[in-house]
Design goal:
heterodimer; A: about 160 residues; mainly alpha; Four Helix Bundle (Hemerythrin (Met), subunit A); about 80% helix; elongated; B: about 140 residues; 6 helices
Chain lengths: ~160, ~140
């Protein structure tokens, strides 16, 4: 009886050791799988996703006027994806970057909200009687140029706070 | 006008965040001053901390005023342009004249508040630049 009890304890101990060994690589990456990793790799990937999304948005603004109302929807959709990608990037920032870069990253987020006003302005302009083709051309120009300014700020601030480095 | 919307992006974003983060914005800014390599700038930041904080409060107030005047100013400009595109003679009407007047007033107030911010920034620069005479601007 004692022998079988000892055997059972030994087996259970072995099982725990095996389980810990199997899970060990997961503990190496802080927070994963319970949250977004804040490693330089994760930051580089997230930053690349934001930059790509700015390109997609700018492409959408170049072609929007040829698609009528569908063009507006596409620009808006690409803009929402950019916002999502930026939020994703902020989730990869580590504690030091968030503490030291709090103002900088909040300004980038505010910048997106200001760019978004172009969509409301478009609706308002059409409502006030501006031809839709003119209104969408102007909206696209503002979104395209503002997103270029925003991207320059993003690059400068990410470099300042060593995002992805 | 499109240029105005794009070029004002950075300053509008900063003004919004100064309002939203308030004391946390100043605290973060002070910490970044404390990390500056030049010891004389760090010492000046420490020495003038109360004055810097007062200056920041005035910047916060002026930014808020500038922001709340900028929106109706831009809106007025956009509406005036649309009205003019639809009917170049619309300026003869009282409603259009009134819109011109109010838009101009909002624009003047934006400039006045931005000048106030500029005065404070110059004052901060003097405080943090060794050898420069400091004259704090007060609530003017």
């Amino acid at each position: 009886m004692n022998t079988s009890l000892k055997q059972m304890v030994r087996d259970r101990g072995l099982a725990i050791v095996l389980l810990v060994t199997m899970l060990a690589p997961l503990f190496v990456y802080a927070q994963w799988p319970f949250g977004t990793p804040t490693t330089p790799d994760a930051q580089r990937n997230a930053l690349a996703a934001v930059r790509s999304q700015v390109n997609w948005l700018q492409n959408a603004t170049r072609t929007a006027s040829g698609y009528g109302g569908g063009g507006y929807g596409n620009v808006q959709q690409q803009f929402e994806s950019l916002r999502g990608a930026y939020i994703g990037l902020t989730h990869t920032l580590n504690e030091l970057q968030l503490a030291r870069g709090g103002n900088d990253f909040a300004e980038l987020e505010a910048g997106l909200s200001i760019i978004q006003e172009a969509f409301t302005n478009y609706q308002e302009a059409v409502g006030a009687g501006q031809p839709e083709s003119t209104a969408i051309r102007e909206m696209c120009q503002i979104v395209r140029e503002a997103s270029q300014v925003w991207l320059r700020e993003l690059n400068s601030r990410c470099s300042k706070h060593r995002v992805g480095m | 006008m499109n240029r105005l919307q794009v070029d004002s992006l950075r300053i509008r974003a900063r003004a919004q965040v100064i309002q939203a983060r308030g004391d946390a914005y100043f605290a973060s800014w002070s910490e970044s001053l404390a990390r500056i390599k030049k010891p004389e700038v760090r010492a000046a930041a420490e020495h003038f901390r109360p004055e810097l904080e007062q200056s920041f409060s005035r910047i916060k107030l002026a930014s808020k005023e500038a922001g709340s005047e900028f929106n109706p100013f831009l809106h007025g400009l956009r509406m005036l342009r649309i009205d003019l595109e639809k009917d170049p003679d619309c300026m003869k009407e009282n409603a259009a004249k009134e819109l011109v007047r109010t838009t101009r007033e909002h624009g003047k107030e934006v400039i006045r508040q931005l000048n106030a911010v500029n005065t404070e920034l110059e004052s901060i620069t003097k405080m943090l630049t060794p050898g420069k005479t400091v004259t704090t601007s007060g609530a003017s």
